[in-house]
Amino acid sequence: MNVLRSLVLVPLAALLVAACGVGLCKAFGWNLHPRDLLLAAIAVTLAGELAALPQLLAFDQSAASLAQAGLIGTVIHLLVTMAVAGVVYLAFHADLAFTFWLAAFYWVTLGALAAGFIRSLRVAANQAKAVARAARGNSASASPAGGQER
Fold first, then answer.
1. For the chain, is the Cβ count within 10 Å smaller at the N or the C terminus?
2. Residues 44-57: pLDDT tens digits?
């Protein structure tokens, strides 16, 4: 369920970057480059949503499996961002402003993704510890000595 939270956090992080960037551009009187802002936001949001797929599709929800899925997710985020950026540069002849917007969106959404991945990994590790504790407790009470070893 924590992966679903990442699916919501990525667009929210992109909106936060856009709002802060628009505010800074207005405050300093810089050209906003709205087309570049929109293209970068779409590219990185798409990459962030695709990056959550490995954790959604993980075979089991063990800590090792989720750690690998998180690593694969961050690689997907990077590769999809760069692929879409290449297409945008070739198809739309984007300005240098696109690169700056893309960098801002990339790093913030990467942080949101990593936070979601870490949270799901911690939940899985805590669940594994609880299962191990419960198994130890059940095996101790089932032993013939009543849980006391000599």
1. C
2. 999 999 999 998 88
CA 18 to the chain's CA centroid? 18
- Report the distance separating Cα 6 and Cα 77, nearest Å: 13
Count of C-beta atoms within a 10 Å radius of residue 54: 21
**Annotated domain spans of the chain:** 2-133
d(Cα 52, Cα 90) in Å, to the nearest integer? 27
Q: For residue 71, which phi and psi values (nearest 5 degrees)?
A: -65, -45
Please, are residues 114 and 89 in contact by the beta-carbon 8 Å criterion?
no
| Nearest one of 35, 34, 54, 43 to 11, comparing CA atoms | 43
Arithmetic mean of pLDDT, 64-79: 94
**Rounded Cα gap, residues 50 and 46, in angstroms:** 6
- The CA-atom distances, in angstroms, between 32 and each of 20, 29, 96, 148 are 12, 9, 12, 72
Q: Answer yes or no: are the C-beta atoms of 9 and 110 closer than 8 Å.
A: no
CA torsion, points 107, 113, 119, 123, in degrees to nearest 10? -160
What would the two tokens of residue 49 be? 């949503």
Under DSSP, is residue 136 helix (H, G, I), strand (E, B) or coil?
A: helix
State the Cα–Cα distance between residues 5 and 9, nearest whole angstrom. 6
